[in-house]
Amino acid sequence: MKLTLHVWRQQGHGTAGTFETHEVPQVSPDMSFLDMLDLVNEEITANGGDPIAFEHDCREGICGSCGMVINGRPHGPRKLTTACQLHMRSFSDGDEIWVEPWRADSFPVLRDLVVDRAPLDRIIEAGGYISVRTGSAPEANAIAVPKPDADRAFEAAACIGCGACVAACPNASAMLFTAAKAAHLSFLPQGQAERYERALGMVAAHDEHGFGNCTNHGACQEACPKGISVRYIARLNRDLLRATLTGVGMDDGPTDA
Amino acid sequence: MELNARIPDGPIAEKWSRRRFEMKLVNPANKRKYDVIVVGTGLAGASAAATMGELGYRVHAFTFHDSARRAHSIAAQGGINAAKNYQGDGDSIRRLFQDTVKGGDFRSREANVHRLAELSVNIIDQAVAQGVPFAREYGGLLANRSFGGAQVSRTFYARGQTGQQLLLGAYQALERQVAAGTVHLHTRSELLDIVVVDGRARGIVTRDLVSGKIEAHVADAVVLATGGYSNAFFLSTNAKGCNVTATWRAYRRGAGFANPCFTQIHPTCIPLSGEYQSKLTLMSESLRNDGRIWVPKRAGDERPADAIPDAERDYYLERLYPSFGNLTPRDIASRRAKEMVDAGHGVGPLRNGVYLDFREVIRRVGRQTVSERYGNLFAMYEKITGEDPYARPMRIYPAPHYTMGGLWVDYDLMTTVPGLFAIGEANFSDHGANRLGASALMQGLADGYFIVPLTIGHYLADGPRGGLSPEDAPFRDAVSEVEGFQRRLLDVNGSRTVDSFHQELGRLLWDRCGMARSEEGLKEALERIPELREEFWRNVRVPGSADTLNQSLEKAGRVADFLEFGEIMCRDALTRDESCGAHYREEHTTEEGEARRDDERFAHAAVWEYRGEGVEPARHVEPLTFEEVALTQRSYK
User: Fold this and answer.
1) Gyration radius of chain B over CA positions
2) B129-142: pLDDT as tens digits
3) Residue B632: pLDDT above 90?
4) Dihedral (C-alpha) B50, B53, B54, B57: value to the nearest 10 degrees?
């Protein structure tokens, strides 16, 4: 098939960007979207130009490196599919495709489609972990975890940290990302000791790094390639409410909600 | 080059306890006076950096990714082995040790492997405590499944995303230390050289991938956790960024490189669908728990799978290996798949695969249960091929996946360069000539959580501390050298892209140094690679400039190193004149087509020493003795 690509080019944060058009004549339906971008880049390089910079690594939908808005949708038209998993059979001969980076104040553009997502790590640093020194762990089967809880924890833990939720949200909120990690850990007995400090800490870091508030649009859930649910945001909000009302998780608060 | 493994004396089951007791310690109050660099933040790197931070060292961790969580460990699928014996099916530390030594085809160091088996149980404890959501039984306790090369169920898993969850556990522990101020994490920073001062590793040189700036970093010890080199083949299951640069630079600075030809081909990956393809996707070995591998009995049979009755299907692994069946270890399963396709029994549009069929297990336990076990893997397959593995058998074919070779290390995981440690896939140690499934995750975390944080203390207690700065001559010289290398790449300004060179090298290595190797083929490769490398330096085109984000320049440096490394891989394959594990020399096979070892001449690790640009490297050996596990011809019948 023959396709027309309009790709965002930008030298860096604070410089003006623009769309650049590329005709791509020979696209096989079995190619992945990124295979196609590679092809475009090979051509640009051969013609002496500057190839399009885009982030990618595993090319199998698990590392969270890749991320581009394709025809207005983060990761493109297919549900539960990352940009690297998107294959050209999802498009038709003659299609025009607009390719842009994640757009959010918290994600400054570094070059073309590459943005800085470091604030997501800052949120994890503020409580997205269970504090256990190496070597201090009890015997693995000492704590039984009911299978439904283990399964729910896994579902929430499947977030790949790509930032599509932020890109999709009109407020550029990262609450889905934050809530997924908080939920993963709070579904488990191991996560209970720090549950409320975690909720307070992560949301504070989230707000500090310029992400917007959640106002229940739900666009994040739609865009998420891993099917992370907004009900985790509801769960996080309940933990925040409990912490705020009872003081649990705060310095002078009770130990128990 | 002196190769002293420094294996502790005493019975094998006591060596590690003995070492822990006898090693020197660094007083808790003194640890904060030491700087340790960790390069790579995968399972081994993140766990090592986090643990050393908790212990109180000043840790400087580096990753070329935008975040520590992007390391390729994230993509590991099927599971992690541990000798917990929760299944009560006869497992033990001794059995895991034995299975691993045998699985490695008797080319690994027994003492290291036994330690690995001992530590496997601690890893599971640590992971569970961190909140890794392993699969559980209904009573709430941990579930297990079986993996290749074992007749017990000792693999712990989180659906088909075990690597992801284990890495997130280690990454979260790492970020906790970043918040605590014990670990300084440098993202988008790629190691381009190692600095050795007075014979000791004292720092590294990195490139900031956004600004292009080349910088030196000083430390008292350096730990490399930079993964494997399967991308030498261009097409592999590795992520696009994976490369050999860190270990190759270490080699050039004096670290022995062991067994580079021990490259593992994984039997179950999605077959190639075209010329443009940029990587191969792994389908976890865990699928072989339930899937049955077969090809049509008649070569060239083009009927769709469900039109071929059982009697006309060759379930060849079950036929050839009755006791292990579809769970035959990777090296053997890969070679048989290639044999079937070469003989014309291949399936799929390009006739380049074999079937992995789930029809029976779906019938037996239902679609829901199969989805719980492998859900994400089935979805991944469907996205890539457009075919539904619940309705039609999966098509699979072998692909480069893991590298058992790597930097030589002693029992303390230190290379031949004092102060330079190597952990995880970057080192050569525990898997011998073939790695068993679910043991890479085990090794990375054993090295990172439990071994190097202790053994590095022994080195530091007597070693140098401070006294150097990035302004000192060795660092400034190293920085100039790296800047010069970058400029040379950009100045060639030829007409061929970096990828085209990488593809050509990859194809050459796959054909001549892949699943089956021959003296003739290897010699051809050894002639061709220097020619290709010479053409690279004459004709590569690297657009853009050095002082900015430049992905072509990043790739170019990595490919330049692969073009050197490829030669040593072939040389190693040529000089190891036997077959063992994944290294298969057509001249040395048994009657049944299995690897025929020559234990008299080759029961050793081959360790290469760099002798200079354009000079043939020197080959040293570490003899391997097998006192605990009797040397036998591996049989999985």
Assistant:
1) 24
2) 999 999 999 999 99
3) no
4) 150
Active site residue B330: yes
Q: Are strands A96-100 and A73-74 parallel, antiparallel or unpaired?
A: unpaired
| Cβ atoms < 10 Å from Cβ of B208 | 16
The strand pair at B618-623 and B496-497 is best described as: unpaired
Q: How confident is the model at residue B286 (pLDDT cuts 50, 70, 90)?
A: confident
- What DSSP state is assigned to residue B32? T
Angle ∠(B7,B13,B14) on CA atoms, nearest 5 = 65
Percent of chain A with pLDDT over 70: 100
Closest to A255 in 3D by CA, of A188, A189, A196, A210: A196
Half-sphere exposure of B178 (CA within 13 A, CB side): 27
Size of interface A-B (CB pairs under 8 A): 212
Question: In this structure, are residues B419 and B221 in contact, taking their beta carbons and an 8 Å threshold?
Answer: yes
Calculate mean pLDDT across residues B283-295. Answer: 89
User: How many residues does the structure list for chain A?
Assistant: 257
Total residue count of chain B as it appears in this document: 637
- B463 band by pLDDT with thresholds 50, 70 and 90: confident
Nearest Cα of chain A lies from the Cα of B66 at a distance, in angstroms, of: 7
Set B95, B249, B313, B330: catalytic member: B330
Q: Would you tell me which residues 483-502 of chain B have a C-beta closer than 8 angstroms to some C-beta of chain A?
A: 495, 497, 499-500
What's the rounded mean pLDDT across residues B550-568? 98
| Beta bridge partners of residue A114, listed in sequence order | A111
Chain centre distance of CA B156 = 19
A window 95-134, beta carbon within 8 A of B:
110-111, 114, 116-118, 120-121, 124-126, 128-134
* Residue B288 in this model has a pLDDT that exceeds 90: no
**B125 → closest Cβ in A117, A139, A161:** A139
Q: Is A56 on the interface with B (CB under 8 A)?
A: yes
d(CA B597, CA B575): 14
Model confidence over A163-198: pLDDT tens digits?
A: 999 999 999 999 999 999 999 999 999 999 999 999
Closest in B74, B172, B543 to A129, CB measured:
B172
Whether the predicted interface score ipTM is above 0.85:
yes
Please list the alpha-helical segments (H only) found in B213-284. 245-252
Q: Which amino acid, one-letter code, is at B340?
A: M
Interface residue A137 vs chain B (CB under 8 A)? yes
Q: Is A154 in Cβ contact with B128 (below 8 Å)?
A: no
State the pairing for strand pair B354-357/B394-403: antiparallel
- Give the chain A residue whose CA is nearest to the CA of B71: A63
Report pLDDT for A175. Answer: 98
Buried b / exposed e along B573-609 (16+ C-beta atoms within 10 A): bbebebbbbbbbbeebeeeeebbbbeeeebbbbbbbb
Beta carbons of A110 and B549 less than 8 angstroms apart: yes
